[in-house]
Design a protein that fits this description.
six-stranded mixed beta sheet; alpha/beta; elongated; eight-stranded mixed beta sheet; 34% helix; 19 strands
Length: 492
């Protein structure tokens, strides 16, 4: 869906949305609408008990300018950016398949001008809520096909168009992430993930590097390759580099788990629900989307994104419980459960980026543990960090964007739970504290002096019900969070 700006509502508009603050019906500025039209929409709103709460809508058809206008009052709540986000998403959700093609939003209806950032937040939510993947639906009824193709923002405050330019880049990054997460595993696997991203970011100024299994074998990446050895699909390490400040080491590295399908390997998952494991590459998807967003908006920061891409399959050559692998760092790992594979992928990716690019700060993202879903459901991602300042920055970015996080502890008492009697460590601890011991495992591969955070986003990349900015399915979680962190903390 396209977002456009105009100084006023076109006289020919037949679908008009007017923002309303909470308890703000009496303060609504109707502009050119005559008294009869005003009376009709206000009566409809009061009959529906509409009071301007964020995301609520009242509707009426009125006569104006010699034609019938569909008039919507859209609640923007108390005026916070999150309220505007709910409003923008709700408007798209109502109109997306309604038969309407264009809706005009009249910001002059508010008694006071909203902030440019709030209007941009409204617009990005509207754009994100319109995203769908209908690629494989060949018999979709006409009434279920999207029709809304344009949203016109009229009388928007000064600076809103510039604020939207930033948000548009983020929306495009989220769209890439959602497409990668949504595609079936016979379409997106390590090599095709690389091909899809390469095509999608072509011409944006990102430097791409791809390591295949031969290169990773030569580097000693035995942990990552151990996960992949049961699959006919070749593992890949995809590197995306953005030099927004010019030559030099990156200030920030983003590392994503990219298990394009996870059967659990020899430690086979139960059959029911296994189809969901196509989204076990949501961390890598978020990294790819965030790197695209940074490149699109020409972020003034040096950031590198690394995606460890594998498929975890059972096979005569698959990794076994009881195996010991040697990671790129030289540390050895006893494999107790082949379904604890994401940490094996991440640990070698972490070592690779530190040895080759020396980032001062690293954030990894992974759909790592079912225990995180038990802990937090789908309301927050889990945050682990070795630096309180970095943790606070991430928490603030999460609150600002709606990609919420909740911090968990790291401690030596948990670290001891993954000590192995036969190797340097084992890849799983006991049942208790499963998300924490996974984070403790990763911390062993972070160099001294490097600020590091681990985001366990297992409950966040896929939704079973619609939200403010997404329908059922891929959410694109993490892209907005990472972009906001870079904007707030790494651009000078």
């Amino acid at each position: 869906m396209d977002i456009r700006f105009a100084p006023t509502v076109p006289e020919t508009a037949t679908l008009l949305a007017m923002p309303v603050e909470k308890d703000g019906l009496d303060r609504l500025v109707f502009g050119a609408l005559d008294t009869a039209a005003q009376t009709l929409i206000l009566s409809a709103a009061r009959a529906a008990r509409f009071e301007g709460e964020a995301g609520t809508i009242a509707e009426a058809f009125v006569s104006h300018g010699g034609h019938v206008v569909q008039l919507l009052l859209i609640g923007v709540g108390t005026g916070g950016e999150s309220d505007y986000e709910r409003a923008g998403g709700a408007l798209t959700a109502k109109l997306l398949c309604s038969g309407a093609k264009t809706v005009a939003v009249d910001w002059a209806a508010l008694p006071g001008a909203p902030s440019a950032a709030a209007v941009a937040r409204f617009a990005v939510a509207a754009r994100l809520r319109a995203w769908r993947i209908d690629t494989y639906r060949t018999k979709l009824p006409e009434k279920q096909k999207p029709t809304l193709s344009e949203m016109l923002l009229a009388a928007a405050p000064e600076g809103a168009a510039d604020a939207w330019a930033h948000q548009q880049a983020v929306a495009d990054g989220v769209a890439l992430t959602r497409s990668l997460v949504s595609e079936p595993p016979n379409v997106i696997y390590p090599e095709s993930f690389v091909a899809r991203v390469r095509a999608d970011v072509a011409g944006l100024g990102l430097e791409l590097q791809v390591l295949g299994e031969a290169e990773m074998t030569a580097l000693g990446m035995g942990a990552l390759l151990g996960v992949s050895q049961g699959s006919v699909r070749e593992a890949q390490l995809l590197v995306l580099k953005w030099q927004g400040k010019g030559p030099g080491d990156p200030d920030l590295a983003l590392v994503g788990k990219g298990v394009t399908f996870d059967t659990g390997g020899i430690s086979l998952k139960p059959g029911p629900g296994m189809e969901d494991m196509k989204w076990d590459m949501g961390g890598a998807g978020a990294v790819a989307g965030a790197m695209k967003a940074l490149a699109l908006r020409k972020a003034r920061a040096n950031v590198i994104g690394v995606c460890g891409l594998v498929e975890n399959m059972p096979d005569g050559n698959a990794q076994r419980p009881g195996d010991i692998v040697t990671s790129m760092s030289g540390q050895t790992i006893e494999i107790l459960n082949t379904d604890a594979e994401g940490r094996l992928v991440l640990c070698d990716a972490l070592t690779w980026v530190q040895r080759n690019h020396r980032p001062k700060t690293i954030i990894d993202l992974a759909t790592l543990t079912g225990a995180m879903i038990i802990s937090l459901g789908s309301e927050h991602g889990g945050l682990f960090a070795n630096d309180d300042g970095l943790a606070d920055q991430l928490l603030a970015a999460g609150k600002a964007t709606g990609d919420l996080l909740w911090r968990f502890p790291l401690a030596d008492a948990y670290n001891k739970l993954i000590d192995s009697p036969i190797a340097d460590m084992k890849n799983v601890g006991p049942r208790g504290a499963g998300s924490i011991t996974a984070a403790q495992f990763l911390q062993r591969f972070v160099d001294k002096g490097v600020r590091w955070a681990h985001l366990d986003i297992a409950g966040m990349v896929w939704a079973d019900k619609a939200g403010a900015t997404y329908d059922k399915g891929a959410t694109g979680y993490g892209v907005r969070l990472l972009d906001r962190l870079v904007a707030d903390q790494f651009e000078g």
